[in-house]
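Notes for week 9. Today we move from apo structures to complexes. The key idea is that a small molecule is not decoration. When we ask for a structure prediction with S-adenosylmethionine present, the ligand SMILES becomes part of the input, just like the chain. The input block below holds both the sequence and the ligand string. Read it once before you look at the output, and try to guess where the molecule might sit.
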Amino acid sequence: MTSIEPVQMDLFSCVPDGSREHHDPQSRDHPRETLRRLLSDDLEFHGEDTGYATHNFHAFPARFPPQLPRKFISYLTQPGEIVLDPMAGSGTTVVEAMILGRYGIGVDIDPLAISLASVKTTPIDPGEIIRIARPIFQNAIAALHHERNTLREAFEAYFDSDTKKFIDYWFREDTQLELFCIAREIKAISDATLRRFFQIALSSIIITKSGGVSMAYDLAHTRPHKKEGKIPRSAIEEFQKRLKKNVKTIAKLNNLKGKGTILCSDAQAVSLRDDSIDLIVTSPPYASNAIDYMRAHKFSLVWFGYNIGSLSKKRSDYIGGERIRNSPAYALPEYTEYIISQLGDRDLKKAHVLRRYYSEMYLCLSEMYRVLKPKRTAVVVVGSSTMRGVNIEAGRCLAEIGQNVGFDLVGIGQRRLDRDRRMMPAGIGGNSRSRIEERMHKEYVLGFCKLK
Ligand SMILES: C[S@@+](CC[C@H](N)C(=O)[O-])C[C@H]1O[C@@H](n2cnc3c(N)ncnc32)[C@H](O)[C@@H]1O
């Protein structure tokens, strides 16, 4: 039996050949054995096309190559079964589940990730998008040409002083007005699905490797720095180009048999029933905010009505945040405690941050265990990193924590990162041997099974 229906093959004819795998008839009965075998396969996928389907809608740091979730979903589930990613980011797992005729569920707390993953997995009538796009451009261009003073006044009144300061620092005056009037038109769209579609197209011209229409550079790597002398392109023109591209792609989502749902929820307490999920494929954030999503995402969220103050506050909700909380300190498993104590010998504050990370991941893994059906599997992809020179051994510690919450550890695969593709923070100023780069070159693929 093939895992991909003919209609889906036609839809995503650009899907790499290697991913048109045949479903292993044994996998339904022995997912544990299938997972063990998959973990020893090549999991790198370097050089493969990662921009097919809706995957190229928007940059997102540390996203999966789509072939990674695709491989596990193809072999470890049947069409119609439910695949969960509790830290879904840009929704790669959910998109792949849909392409493969499964039901994908994505969970995240980041407002941009939720919008992006929703847009990438929600079919829309392209005719509606085109119908709405026309007046958006007409009104925006008219306001820019004929009502500039009124527009400027509305702009000044809209943002609070901190948000305005941020915008003034990172965006040129012309761009500010362009973005403001496009965002204002988008805000007036009454249908939430359509509104989100336009917002994500707008966001994708800001959050790019080159900083898009902002004055920043390296936004896609969450390491923005200002590039003096940069002359950004016209936001209206870039937005128009982007919309055209996205409309073509979204039209094809309507043909998919699979379905997707994106939930705004904390992965430490998801509102899903016990024993309801057939497969989990996920990758948690790095410890100690090594990839700070909000640092880049605020560049577009400010245009959607968020203010800088509330966005900064939200950062502490992310797993791996730097702020130490007064929550009860859990006793973690032995090796994890040992790593935390090693770090504590060098920097006590950082050791608390690491304890917070592993404690939060303890709760996430407990939730994964709770919602997974018995005899089914979970795949957790985790990056290695160092804090104050101590290797925090996230692979080994999360494997230990997974076992502690009840999982059987089936195996640990490894993959080297394709730096160009997974969008890790690059060395600023081209310093390719920067410490941040050195500590993020490898990932561990932890395979778990819920035995009963
Ligand atoms: C490494 S990224 C996932 C990337 C994803 N695999 C992809 O392909 O796009 C980790 C995600 O975890 C999310 N996250 C952080 N804290 C969370 C929490 N408490 N609950 C749910 N998601 C969270 C972040 O917002 C981020 O989107």
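The longest strand covers residues 372-383.
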